[in-house]
């Protein structure tokens, strides 16, 4: 029902390869089988990220908590997981018809856009555009993310051949951190 509420149809949902999980499945997915001691007080699903060969390279997890609170995350990634760009199923075919690509925040939004014929990829969050190694270098140098931060390779490749439009969530108008992330991403791609 959550996927339908995002406007996704059965064909898109099936192509996304989403898997429903109970609390233990979520704990294993996020913490790993060796470290998951008890089930999360939640249910949810895994959103797989695929490489160019169709192999799952990672998952992000959508959680629906038994007792919701503002402090509980809606999404989690596996511990120590590298950051990746979400490329929805059907993106290549849609992208080939356009000279631009939209970068948005959230896998479901990108999948819905592609479903409607709009070339779109997603970041798991506004700060998840950087190469994992680049973020490590930023931390070692004692600086935050900037135009010097190396973007994800997949983003760099897209930016070489397409115009980029960054469209983050609607809260960016009031949220200075989201605004800053958008401009920093733009500067890093132009650098």
Q: Care to describe what's here?
A:
The protein is an alpha/beta fold and 191 residues long. It is 35% helix and 21% strand. The chain has helices at residues 2-5, 10-16, 23-31, 91-95, 107-115, 132-140, 153-161, 176-190, and strands spanning 19-21, 42-50, 56-65, 75-77, 100-105, 120-123, 163-167. The strands form 2 sheets. It has a 4-stranded antiparallel beta sheet. It has a 3-stranded parallel beta sheet with strand order 6-5-7. The mean pLDDT is 90.
List keywords for this structure.
191 residues, single chain, alpha/beta, 8 helices, 35% helix
Write the layout of secondary structure elements.
Elements: H1 2-5, H2 10-16, E1 19-21, H3 23-31, E2 42-50, E3 56-65, E4 75-77, H4 91-95, E5 100-105, H5 107-115, E6 120-123, H6 132-140, H7 153-161, E7 163-167, H8 176-190
